[in-house]
């Protein structure tokens, strides 16, 4: 029996990336877009909060943040209460880009939601949370003995 959920989720995610790539003068990756839109919606966030919200590998998250810092969209500052924590903040330029990204993603989501009932949306979100739970801790790889 073929996979029932993962191919459609993959296609949808890939299409969102293509949608973002085709926005003129934006020039950001999907990972960058999600971080910027998160910061636009929730404000300053720690790296741990971004990790929990977006589920990137820490090394991937660091690479994306490095690119956003280099482009002048964000800063990473040591936390005032805990110096082991880094707080990610939008710069003035980053706030403009983040607002644009958030607006574009909200428009895309609104187009999709116009075609889905509230009941189906609740069901979809339930399925996605259910699918995501076991994926958070994938089965360990067994070493083959040769």
Description of the structure:
With 146 residues, the chain is mainly α. The protein has one domain (25-133): Arc Repressor Mutant, subunit A, CATH 1.10.10.10. It contains six helices and three strands; from the N terminus they run ααβααββαα. The chain has helices at 6-21, 30-42, 47-54, 58-70, 92-113, 118-136; strands spanning 45-46, 74-78, 86-90. The chain has a three-stranded antiparallel sheet with strand order 1-3-2. The longest helix is centred in the last third of the chain and has 22 residues, at 92-113. The model has no long low-confidence stretch (mean pLDDT 89).
User: Helix segment count?
Assistant: 6
The count of strands amounts to 3
- Determine Rg (CA atoms, Å): 18 Å
CATH superfamily placement: Winged helix-like DNA-binding domain superfamily/Winged helix DNA-binding domain
């Amino acid at each position: 029996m073929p996979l029932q959920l993962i191919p459609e989720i993959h296609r949808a995610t890939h299409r969102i990336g293509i949608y973002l790539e085709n926005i003129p003068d934006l020039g950001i990756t999907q990972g960058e877009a999600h971080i910027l839109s998160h910061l636009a919606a929730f404000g300053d966030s720690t790296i741990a909060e971004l990790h929990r919200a977006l589920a990137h590998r820490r090394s991937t998250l660091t690479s994306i943040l490095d690119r956003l810092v280099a482009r002048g969209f964000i800063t990473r500052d040591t936390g005032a209460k805990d110096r082991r924590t880094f707080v990610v903040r939008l710069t003035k330029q980053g706030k403009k880009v983040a607002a644009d990204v958030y607006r574009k993603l909200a428009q895309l989501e609104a187009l999709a939601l116009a075609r889905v009932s509230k009941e189906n949306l609740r069901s979809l979100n339930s399925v996605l949370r259910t699918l995501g739970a076991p994926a958070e801790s994938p089965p360990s790889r067994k070493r083959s003995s040769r």
